[in-house]
Design goal:
mainly beta, 6-stranded antiparallel beta barrel, 47% strand
């Protein structure tokens, strides 16, 4: 496991044009580099104080996105459009 990356991010739909579906949070460029680059990987961390395990995925345009489930959003008191405090590290 590598170092833990900390950042604030906004919850958005992976395909915003659909206004529904998979929710993600974009990982800043510095965090992407620390995690190992623009690729799909398993990660763990904390979002708004709630521990989670999830995946990252390239989201186009040089952006790495963290997948956030409906269950995780509910547990963390979040919704699409909200900003969260995130700590994440590669498994």
């Amino acid at each position: 496991m590598g170092s833990r990356t900390k950042f604030r991010g906004k919850v958005r739909y992976f395909r915003p044009e659909a206004a529904s579906g998979l929710a993600v949070i974009d990982i800043p460029a510095g965090g992407t580099k620390e995690l190992g680059g623009l690729k799909q990987m398993r990660v763990k961390g904390v979002i708004n104080g709630v521990e989670f395990t999830s995946n990252t995925m390239p989201a186009g345009g040089g952006v790495l996105a963290l997948s956030v489930s409906k269950k995780l959003l509910d547990s963390a008191g979040l919704r699409v459009g909200a900003t969260a405090e995130i700590e994440v590290e590669r498994l």
